[in-house]
Amino acid sequence: MQSLTKHQMRPAVPRSETVETSVAALADSCLGYLAENPEELLAFMQFAGFDPDALRRSVGSSALQRGLVDYFASNEPILLALCANSGMSPEQFMRVWHRLNPSG
Fold first, then answer.
1. Which residue has the higher pLDDT, 55 or 20?
2. Is the separation of the CB atoms in 98 and 104 below 8 Å?
3. Alpha-carbon dihedral 76, 40, 47, 75, rounded to 10 degrees
4. What whole-number percentage of the chain has pLDDT above 70?
5. Which pLDDT score is estimated for 70?
6. What angle, 0 to 180 degrees and rounded to 10, lies between the N-to-C axes of helices 38-48 and 62-73?
7. What is the mean pLDDT of the chain?
8. InterPro entries given for it (predicted)?
9. 37: alpha, beta or left, given left = phi > 0 and alpha = psi -120 to 50?
């Protein structure tokens, strides 16, 4: 009979690894949140200098994606509201922000 090591005796259980959120997916969540909250959308547009046409033309661009993530990261109340509504933790959100801004 072959001797089994302790490692070999454990059943193979898949690890529950967190799927890393992409910038695009996070930006889509941010834009969706803004679309559902017109006052917040207006505040973002004023902050970013967008009119409705400029915002429509920017959707999907990496510049808008980064801008949305930066805007939410710097605005704790809407960051927390987005996270509460989406089931994402603020830490998950900020990990994506840190990937975009490695020097902080």
1. 55
2. yes
3. 0
4. 81
5. 97
6. 110
7. 86
8. DUF3572
9. beta
Pair 73, 94: CB distance under 8 Å: yes
Asked if residue 66 lies in contact with residue 23, where contact means CB atoms within 8 angstroms, the answer is yes
Phi, psi at residue 21, to the nearest 5°? -75, 135
Angle at 31 between CA 26 and CA 35, to 5 degrees: 150
Kindly report, residue by residue over 39-77, the tens digit of the pLDDT. 999 999 999 999 999 999 999 999 999 999 999 999 999
Question: What amino acid is encoded at 74 in this protein?
Answer: S
Domain boundaries, the chain: 21-100
Residues in the chain: 104
Cβ 71 vs Cβ 100: under 8 Å: no
How much is the pLDDT for 47?
A: 96
